Amino acid sequence: MTDLLKEIQEGFANLDQSGRMLPIKAMPKACPAWVFREGDKFGVAVECFEPLEVSEGFAGARLRTVERVVAGLHRRFLRLESSIEWLRNEFGLICEHMVSVGSDNAARRELLANPLVWWERWRHLLGNALVDRHSYDVLAELLAVEVLALKGIAFEWSGPFGGVVDIKTPLTDYEVKSTISRYAAVINVAGQFQLAASASKPLQLLHFRFELVDDGLSVDLVCDRLIALGVDSIMLENALQRLGLDAGCSARKEAYNLLEVRSYVVDDDFPRVTPASFVGGVLPVGVVQLEYKVDLSGLKYQQF
């Protein structure tokens, strides 16, 4: 075991949860690093002097930038952190690799120049734990909100906060679905309530079709446009955080070209399963969850 790894693992074991950052003695003075504990999180940190904004996570680890006061100075750090105590020694191996400086400090320079390159290598190495997260479903909801905002229609983006439908307005509710398939027209519906219109207002299903491109619409771009229209930036950020898209997350910068948007009226002619589909309006005894698919091919629609 190297001195660096031993010091990191001992820091995990001995630091309290006060948020204290302990300088790692095994590091050269030109490239310092710290080991820390903060609440239920522990990990290592290196200082970054460029205005980096990173927030990536998979399995039990997260790479992100934070701002902290150390020795009376306000500083920005790139942190690798976890909260899985029983794997902290194994996690220490990845932490050791992150803070290592390499020949002529080249590894540290490369890390700070592009942290996502380092992160992607580890993600693919630990491939069984890798779950890629894409943003086109959230982008679709934001674009729907933008259309309503441009029309001056009051809205509530309720989907991220556990709403039965994604977007509510005084006159109509909207459920939003999306795809990056050029031709697929089958959507997934979660539960018997998702397409159950309320008694007081109609429900529309919006189906967005995207393609992934190098330069196009992104979550961050549309959020900037919404804020310029007067949409509450705090509400948007809270919603994105609940959806797992923290500020700095690379998925928020994924670019898409919008191919089309179709709007379907969810009425008695629309294929769906609702409480009214069952005797007495309740699921059969023993059925605890319902998911199904709907083929939109051949259904009447309008452009949104």
Task: Provide a descriptive summary of the structure in words.
The chain is an alpha+beta fold. The protein has two domains: 3-129, no CATH class; 136-303, no CATH class. 26% of the residues lie in helices and 29% in strands. The chain has seven helices and 14 strands. The strands form three sheets. Strands 1-2-3-6-5-4 form a six-stranded antiparallel beta sheet, covered by helices on one side. Strand 2 and strand 3 form a beta hairpin. Helix 5 (136-150) packs parallel to helix 6 (219-228). It is elongated and about 70 Å long.
Total tally of structural domains: 2
Shape type: elongated
What is Rg? Answer: 24 Å
Number of strands: 14
Largest sheet: 6 strands, antiparallel
What proportion of the residues is helical, as a percent range? 25-40%
- Note the gap between the termini: 61 Å
Discrete helix count? 7
Structural class: alpha+beta
Q: List the helices and strands in order.
A: HEEEEEEHHHHEEEEEHHEEE
Strand order of the largest sheet: 1-2-3-6-5-4
Name the average pLDDT. 87
Low-confidence stretches: 128-132
Percent strand: 25-35%
